Amino acid sequence: MCGIVGTLAASPVNQLIYDALLLLQHRGQDAAGIVTMQGQKCFMHKARGMVRDVFRTRNMRALPGNIGLGQVRYPTAGNAYSEEEAQPFYVNAPFGIVLVHNGNLTNAHALKDELFDIDRRHINTESDTEVLINVLAHELELAARDLPLTPKEIFAAVRAVQKRIKGSYAVIALIAGQGLLAFRDPHGIRPLCFGRAGNGDFMVASESVALEGTGHQLERDVAPGEALFVDMTGKLHSEQCNDNPQLNPCMFEFVYLARPDSVMDGISVYQARLNMGETLAQRVISTMPPNEIDVVIPIPESSRPSAMQLAHRIGKPYREGFVKNRYVGRTFIMPGQGARKKSVRQKLNAIGLEFKNRNVLLVDDSIVRGTTSKEIVQMAREAGARKVYMASAAPPVRFPNVYGIDMPTREELIAHGRSIEEIRQYIGADALIYQDVDAMKRVVAALHPGLAGFEASCFDGHYVTGDVSVEDFAAMREQRTSQGDEEDTAARSRLALQSGGEH
């Protein structure tokens, strides 16, 4: 999961992209990057860290031009600790292409070999985004050989790219001197939408909130398999580049990843979470008498709409029992288990008044690894709760995700190979209620009757691209193990630096 944005405007876009990235910061906190173009020259700045930390005044002044793109990174492929793998990526031929990507290519390793052996292109990192930009560059070179680069050639190249790459991808690319290109995978797994400001300025981004927050009006989502090209005059061209597109958006976007004020594929994220709360309430009622619950308390932030609707449905008070420290990152997207576990109590503090001598029903958006839930249940008990029940607005996360969410190995998933009772015992709750998979799909799909379905593999084990194998899971497990070793090394280095500073 990453946040991407691209824009073409009548005035300098550096501040505009910066503002859009702030609105997408929840989608990635590991690294950030911006590229702008003036004339034929591209200007880039990227580094690890939050948007506000990566871009200083001097960096912004060095980003001139009226067209550009940006990304906030949350690493799911490659090396989470490498500055080189921060996006955007750049290749100088043909034309000069800069690209940002949200998603995960499931055949990146095979493509890397293919690029070297057949296309004669060298890949220098472990990032699937570098693979993707080189595939696009190669296909653009073939499509535009001895021809002027027009939308026809660009769309032909995208069509060829989509035949070669597999997995999930929402892509924005800047072609030097030509314009802005955006396209989406044929299942529409990762989100992408576009709109215009009142003066005609164009923007494409991961979520509608980035458009609305920067003064743009949402026009529509980029369709699965569709490509858009905006030339330097601001004219929009579009074409379907896949023979069999089907809309299967990622269910986890609606559960957790997206901001509640976004609209994705015609579905209000907020309304989707309210609907999940309604069906979760039905599960609670069928599992335990509501009169055993004194109060419903959400675990901030994503679970609030579901918790409010659940409380209303069972007729119990909704209360805010945890205060969130907004200056600590989202634990789910922190690289490494150690960082996640350590940050839970830094991130949340319990309000004892809401817990003391009460039977509390805690509502979370999902339970992935279980370590955070275990800590929170213990916090509720320490705050004086008589009994602590836990409800998850999402079903059990039992399967690896290969489409760009940081939960790739079975070993990390608390629900994999365990019963609900075993999970309850692990997190220490007096009762544990999960959302039903089919009910969740039904109530979210009701908000968009045209959906083919959802990419909900982490819940149901069905991988919509049809190309995921046991070998893929083994490769990802090996990659994460090596990253864990690097994280430990980095942590020791930081500790050594801190100790040296004290002496």
UniProtKB/TrEMBL annotation:
NCBIfam families: purF (TIGR01134). The active site is at C2. Its EC number is 2.4.2.14. GO terms for molecular function: amidophosphoribosyltransferase activity; magnesium ion binding. InterPro entries: GATase_2_dom, Ntn_hydrolases_N, PRTase-like, PRTase_dom, PurF, PurF_N. HAMAP family: PurF. Catalyzes the formation of phosphoribosylamine from phosphoribosylpyrophosphate (PRPP) and glutamine. One of its GO terms (biological process) is purine nucleobase biosynthetic process. Pfam families: GATase_6 (PF13522), Pribosyltran (PF00156). This is Amidophosphoribosyltransferase. Residues 2-233 form the Glutamine amidotransferase type-2 domain. Keywords: Glutamine amidotransferase, Glycosyltransferase, Magnesium, Metal-binding, Purine biosynthesis, Transferase. In the C-terminal section; belongs to the purine/pyrimidine phosphoribosyltransferase family. Binds 1 Mg(2+) ion per subunit. Signal peptide: none annotated. Its cofactor is Mg(2+). Residues 480-503 are annotated as: Disordered. It catalyses: 5-phospho-beta-D-ribosylamine + L-glutamate + diphosphate = 5-phospho-alpha-D-ribose 1-diphosphate + L-glutamine + H2O. Mg(2+) binds at S302, D364, D365. Pathway: Purine metabolism; IMP biosynthesis via de novo pathway; N(1)-(5-phospho-D-ribosyl)glycinamide from 5-phospho-alpha-D-ribose 1-diphosphate: step 1/2.
